[in-house]
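Lab meeting, item 3. Inverse folding demo.
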């Protein structure tokens, strides 16, 4: 069963040429894949369409079995809550501590502190931020903010995880540790799509690779 399906999807900005053309792709439920391509190829635009933050110019996107183009706007937040996202720009809230930022998806769902405190601290320990649990984002390094953003994305065990260059600000050893976290999440049922141009990751992990070039996608052999 597919969790994501693109059918003849195209995207243009304004009256310019199409930046994504005739995308036909399927992500099966429970799959783990890389999305790769040159800088400016459109990886982030594709990810934003998956997050329902960007509408395609044409074609149909089916997500969780729903034709998202036919849904009322009031339904979109419910779908987004089923998706975990790691952005390149982190998007942490400066007035919340690291612990509070990571726990935010759980709080939005109405969970109580006593129910999630231990799980959040365990996750912070896994990404090496347990000693920064009470620190605020402005005092964190770029790599620490990246790890906090990853922890926030996976804390609620989303059905679909979208990660845009999640290892771009960490050292190779930590990158491999984070990848193991993604693989573990995948083993529990989360579908994972990671956008990266890190050839070391592509060579280290034997998973399907979706290449984006000239506005089109193809699965590499």
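The presenter then showed the designed sequence:
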């Amino acid at each position: 069963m597919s969790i994501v399906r693109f059918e003849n999807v195209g995207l243009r900005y304004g009256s310019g040429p199409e930046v994504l053309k005739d995308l036909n792709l399927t992500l099966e439920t429970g799959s783990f894949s890389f999305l790769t391509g040159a800088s400016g190829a459109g990886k982030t635009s594709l990810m934003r369409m998956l997050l329902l933050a960007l509408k395609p110019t044409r074609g149909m996107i089916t997500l969780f079995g729903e034709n998202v183009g036919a849904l009322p706007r009031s339904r979109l937040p419910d779908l987004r809550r089923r998706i975990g996202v790691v952005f390149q720009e982190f998007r942490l809230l400066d007035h919340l501590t690291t612990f509070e930022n990571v726990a935010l998806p759980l709080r939005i769902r109405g969970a109580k502190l006593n129910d999630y405190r231990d799980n959040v601290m365990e996750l912070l320990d896994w990404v090496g931020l347990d000693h920064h649990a009470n620190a605020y984002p402005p005092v964190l390094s770029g790599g620490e903010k990246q790890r906090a953003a990853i922890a926030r994305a996976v804390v609620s065990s989303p059905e679909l995880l979208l990660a845009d260059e999640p290892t771009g600000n960490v050292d190779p050893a930590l990158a491999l540790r984070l990848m193991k976290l993604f693989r573990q999440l995948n083993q529990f049922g989360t579908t994972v799509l990671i956008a990266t141009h890190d050839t070391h990751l592509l060579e280290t992990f034997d998973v399907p690779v979706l290449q984006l070039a000239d506005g089109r996608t193809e699965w590499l052999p």
